[in-house]
Amino acid sequence: MHSSTSNSEAAGRRPPVALLAALALFALTEQVAWRARPWLDICALYASPFRAADPLRTAAQIRLLEASPSATPIVLAGSSQVQEGLDCAAVERRLPGRPCLNIGISAGTPLDTLFLVNLLERSAPRHTLVMGVFPQVLHREPKAAFTDASTLRCLYRSGSLFRMTPAEWVDDVLYGVVQDLSETLRMKDSLRDMWDIVGPDPAGALRRALPPQPRRALEGLEPRGPEFFGHLMNVVDQTIAPGRFTPAHEAALAEIIAREARRGNTMIILDFPTRRGYETTITPEARVHYQGLVERLAARHGVHFVRREELPPLVDGDFQDFTHLRASGREKVSARVADLLVEVGG
To answer: Are 79 and 217 in contact (CB under 8 A)?
Structure first.
């Protein structure tokens, strides 16, 4: 006769069937949910595009490109400069039949864009990529929500990984890589914010009856007056300087260019315009570094690099602040980008 002790030990050695079944059901449900068009539509409409570490809206929009395989999409990528300053409507008017998607994100960097390009390769490997850069995007720390194996590779090869603090390792890299195991885990903060929007009327969201989130944060704001710029001129932001993560961003940019070239995709990089006086708000080291990057990109094969001098001339009134365009500036630059796409056969 078996003792109760031996029965307990045997039970303890048996696999936790209920737990394994629950995990398997969660994994299956997640795979289905993050590929279901109705759910992705809701995320694309109601997720906030303005949080600096929010991948939900852009990821949903990229996955929805799978539903439009008939024409090569044009994708606009970069920081909030691109989000605010490039208009897909102008591109689509100039290139009818070509879908256009703006995936510019708040505080976006080349490392973030590399993460989004990985999503693009799975959803729409054939695409045209237009990317905007300016000094500020090259020196920020990685974002866990936009971190994957490619991020880790750039951090390692550039040496940036070995200059990170233990807390940065955990918060920005390890946590980001762990999130690759679960899309829901990666999006949890974004989903919580989206629930604040759709929670009062979930049925309205399902019917698409709620107004979608605005595409731009600065739309409709009053223009900044001369006193705003006067107070900031010659006030240097010491964080805009080459630092530990600058080599990783350069490595990410190089990987994006090489990958697009291997795919045979057209890629345009814009030296995105900034308002007169912006140079007085960043360190001299950042100015020198950026000018060197401009020259290297202009000489690089596999990418069409557009200097800001090749863009339409802009006046102070075309800018909302030192780095973001108002509607008039957006119209001028977007029209030129559309013409460039025609010229390069994008």
So the answer is: no
| Tokens, residue 254 | 């190089």
Which element (helix H / strand E) includes 305? strand 304-306
Phi and psi torsions of 102, nearest 5°: -100, 115
Compute CA distances 167 → 164, 174, 281, whole Å.
Answer: 8, 10, 29
The CATH number that applies at residue 222 is 3.40.50.1110
In terms of average pLDDT, the best of 13-22, 122-131, 214-223 is 122-131
Total domains, the chain: 1
pLDDT at 67 over 70: no
Q: What percent of the chain has pLDDT over 90?
A: 71
Query: Does any domain span residue 230?
Result: yes
- Euclidean distance between CA atoms 330 and 87, whole angstroms: 7
Task: Quote the domain boundaries for residue 266.
Answer: 70-179+216-343
How confident is the model over 314-330, as a mean pLDDT? 95
| 96: Cβ contacts below 8 Å, ≥ 6 apart | none
Q: Does residue 48 fall inside a structural domain?
A: no
What proportions of the chain, in percent to the nearest 5, are helix, strand and coil? 60, 5, 35
User: How far apart, in Å, are the Cα atoms of 54 and each of 9, 45, 144?
Assistant: 47, 14, 10
Closest by alpha carbon to 103, among 46, 61, 153?
61
What's the whole-model pTM score? 0.89
